[in-house]
Each structure stands twice: as C-alpha cells, then as structure tokens.
Specification:
By secondary structure, the protein is mainly alpha-helical. The chain has four domains: 5-70 and 228-295, HUPs (Rossmann fold, 3-Layer(aba) Sandwich), CATH 3.40.50.620; 79-226, HUPs (Rossmann fold, 3-Layer(aba) Sandwich), CATH 3.40.50; 308-360; 364-457, Arc Repressor Mutant, subunit A (Orthogonal Bundle). It has 20 helices and twelve strands. The strands form five sheets. The chain has a three-stranded parallel β-sheet. Strands 4-5-8 form a three-stranded antiparallel β-sheet. Helix 9 (251-260) packs across helix 11. The model has no long low-confidence stretch (mean pLDDT 95). Residues 9-11, 43, 184, 198, 202 line the site of glutamic acid.
C-alpha cells in the first residue's frame, strides 16, 4: 500500500464535540498505525456560519487531545480559484448544466413525489434547456442513471446504490460558489487522500462524490464511514471537548473513551495513546452505534489518573487548583506527593484539586466543616490533639514511620486508641472528616504546618 494519507475536515461552525473528536481520532490513529500522514482541512466555504473563533477552538481541542497534524491545515476559503477552474473544466466538457428551477418549483416536485410515495430525486428537466440569460440558476452535475454505484466501505461493508436514485447534484451556484460535495472531491484529490474516514451521516454523499471523481478523471479513495454516537441528551452529545478538559478529564482518557465508542480490541478497556495507535485498525471498527455513558467515562478517567506518574498529575492539577482559588507554583515540592495521596480516589482533576487544596492553604485559613467540627473537635479531643502535637514535636526526621511511632506512643501513654485522635486531627489538618491516609498526609504537609494546624484547632494558637 502506498503511504496512507487521511484527513479530518471539520466545518468551523461550532465547537469540537465528542463525535467530531472521534472522527479525528480514528483518522489520526489510522495514520499513526500505518506510518501515514494525518492532515487537516478547514471546511469554511460557508462564510455566514464559519468563524475564526470556531476554527481556533477546534485546533486547540485537537492539540489538547495530542492529535498532531502532519502538514499545514488547508483552508477551503483560500481555494476558490481551484474550485472555479474545476467547474470551468466540467462546463467545457459538457458534464454540467444550468438548472433554473426555483425553490417553489422544487417544492412542488418534492410534494408530488411525497404524495406518490417516492423519494424525491430531481428529474433533470433543465438538462438540455436553452440558456435563459435573465434567470437565476445553479450548476448541476449530470449523473448517468444506468447501473449502480458500489462503495466497498471499510466499516459498513458493500453499499450498493442504484444510479437512478442519485440525482444530478447541484455543485455550484450561478456566481460559481462551489458546494460541499464538489469541493470535498477536489480537495481530497489535491491532498492525495487515500482513505476518507468520516461519520456515517456522510455515507449518502459518497456515491455522488464518486460520480464527481469520475467526472473529473480523479482516482477514487477508499472510504470508511464510522457509526454515529448516540445516547444521552443532545446537550451532552454536542458539548465541546474543552468542556471535558474543564471538568478535569485527561486527554488520554478522552481518547481512550471515544476510541471505545465504536472500536474494540478484545475485552481490553484501558489504552494509552501509544497502545491505541499500535492496536487500532479500521477493520476493527464496529458498525453499531456507540452510546455515551458518563459513568464509564469517569471510570476510564480514574484509571488514567491512577496510571499517571505523580509529577505528571502535579503539572496537570495546578490550573484546577487555581480555579479552586489556590495558586500553587508548578515547582512546589509538595505538589507531587500531595497528588499521590489522593490519586486512587480522584475521578477527575477537579476532584483531585478539591482533595489536595487543603495542603496549600495558609495554616490559619483552614475552615472546619461544621458537622465534622461538632462531632470531632470536642473539648476532650482538643486536649488529646494538644498532647499529640507535643508528642509529634519530638519526631524530627518526619517520616511516615516516625510520625506513626510518635502518635502510637502518645496513644499508649494516654491509654487511648488511635481512633480517638485520628479523626479529630484529620479535621484539624484538613477541615474535613475524610481525606488521605493520616500519616502520609502529615509527611506531605510538613512538620511546621501539622503542629500549627493541630494547635490552632485546640485553640492554643
Ligand atoms: N465538513 C464535513 C463535516 O464537518 C466533513 C466532510 C467530510 O469529512 O467529507 O461534517
């Protein structure tokens, strides 16, 4: 096989939602898997709906997901001359004709087809009509009605369309403005695309596009139409990738999750990007529609958090801490160990930030949860915590072992159990009744902060 060249071709009219991201991902993975090229084409010919803001949002989202494109993106708006040249060729070769039917006339044809129980196919009535210089027209591409068009789709299998079902399609307006099915063919050919991998919603366009390839004498690429993504509300389906970033998902987890919506490799659930690229093949894409499932996505995210090194988590959690109101320097040495103490219990980076936030607050800024304080910071436990603080003062090397020894020694000499001080000191240190393992947390918090916070809770400071 010659070098694989695939492309993702978003229309910049909104955000990159998960469905679009998955189309991009499958193209990217296929390119990585085959050692080919992954290209981008911004389909911005619809000037009313396309915005730079949307283009930037889509490029940012792809970048965040780690899908690097291999050549400069192509913008359709910059290629009008090429489209006009192809149209002129088709006009010269007599492969297109002017259609003067008005929208009202087409509506009548549509209504007639409907009442006769047929699908509306434009009947080519303008083909061969003499020119009508004063009338508005569109350019229609003539499609032979004999035979059938076969798409050997790499995902959907063999899809056969009788040619009488393919209407002479409009490829340009009277001023030469080209339309989607026409420009896609010109661009895919110019970009040397070998495999068109896109959503199944485009499958009905493919026979029309194949006819245009033939009309322009261009080689037809392979096609793979991906199953759609269903489930959940439209709002969730159409939420942009950046909203998942803001909810604290890891890019690798988003890729893992969307890859599994429509593709599988045995019963493996968790994949890194590298593993996905190793294992991905279009032949393993399912035909059945994938459904979004938030719990599954969270679970996958949690698995990715668990598999990420603490330094990596530290770098990722900083912006979430900032959103939570705490500015922490990237090189703060407490960050990696702090993340490690909550790593197994954080489903998202938002949760992780909320769980490690207390480490980075000023000692006197800890706010006690009302219920927790009422239950655990009683007069009796305050006395115990004060005693424990004194015992801890002697623990100079400040390791889990030395802290544990000091606390256990204090409990023994005071004839109390660990549980009598564990929860009260947790509330004193974090403000909450739940949190990381007590001794690990104390190590990360540091001796001075632990003593300050314990004494503050007893009212000693
Ligand atoms: N611009 C089209 C879309 O966003 C994709 C066209 C294609 O992949 O051929 O749906």
């Amino acid at each position: 096989m010659s070098e694989v060249r695939v492309r993702f071709a978003p229309s910049p009219t909104g955000v990159l939602h998960l469905g679009g991201a998955r189309t991009a991902l499958f193209n990217w993975l296929f390119a990585r898997h085959t050692g080919g090229k992954f290209l981008l084409r911004i389909e911005d010919t619809d000037q009313k709906r396309s915005t730079d803001e949307s283009t930037n949002a889509i490029l940012d989202a792809l970048q965040w997901l780690g899908m690097k494109w291999d050549e400069e993106p192509i913008y359709q708006s910059a290629r009008m001359e090429e489209y006009k040249a192809s149209l002129s060729r088709l006009i010269d070769e007599g492969k297109v004709y002017k259609c003067y039917c008005t929208p009202e006339e087409r509506q009548v044809m549509r209504d007639e087809a409907k009442s006769a129980g047929r699908t509306f196919i434009y009947d080519g009535r303008c083909d061969g009509k003499p020119d009508q210089p004063d009338k508005q027209f569109v350019w229609r591409f003539r499609i032979s009605k004999d035979g059938e068009t076969v798409v050997e789709d790499l995902v959907q299998g063999r899809v056969v369309t009788p040619n009488y079902e393919i209407e002479d399609l409009v490829i340009a307006r009277s001023d030469g403005t080209p339309l989607y099915n026409f420009v896609v063919v010109i661009d895919d050919a110019a970009m040397g695309i070998t495999h068109v991998v896109r959503g199944k919603d485009h499958l009905t366009n493919t026979p029309k596009q194949m006819a245009i390839y033939q009309g322009l004498g261009l080689p037809i690429p392979s096609f793979a139409h991906l199953p759609l993504i269903l489930g959940l509300s439209k709002r969730l389906r159409s939420a942009g990738v950046e909203s998942y970033r803001d909810q604290g998902y890891l890019p690798g987890a988003v890729n893992n999750y969307i890859a599994r919506l429509g593709w599988s490799h045995g019963d493996q659930e968790i994949f890194s990007d590298t593993e996905l690229a190793d294992k991905f093949d279009l032949a393993d894409v399912n035909r059945s529609e994938g459904a979004l499932n938030v719990e599954k996505m969270e679970w996958i995210n949690q698995q990715h958090i668990m598999a990420t090194g603490r330094e990596g988590l530290a770098a990722m959690v900083v912006p979430f801490l900032s959103t939570a109101g705490v500015e922490v320097a990237l090189d703060d040495p407490r960050l990696p160990p702090a993340c490690e103490t909550v790593q197994l219990r954080s489903k998202t980076l938002v949760e992780m930030a909320a769980k490690v936030k207390f480490y980075f607050l000023e000692d006197d800024a800890i706010v006690y949860d009302e219920k927790a304080a009422k239950k655990f910071l009683t007069q009796e436990s305050k006395v115990r915590i004060a005693g424990m603080a004194t015992a801890l003062e002697g623990s100079l090397d400040w390791t889990v072992q030395s802290i544990e020894d000091a606390v256990n020694g204090f409990c023994e000499s005071s004839d109390i159990k660990l549980k009598h001080v564990a929860q009260p000191s947790r509330v004193a240190l974090t403000g909450e009744a739940t949190g990381p393992g007590l001794f690990e947390m104390m190590v990360v918090l540091g001796r001075a902060s632990v003593l300050n916070r314990l004494r503050r809770a007893c009212g000693d400071e």
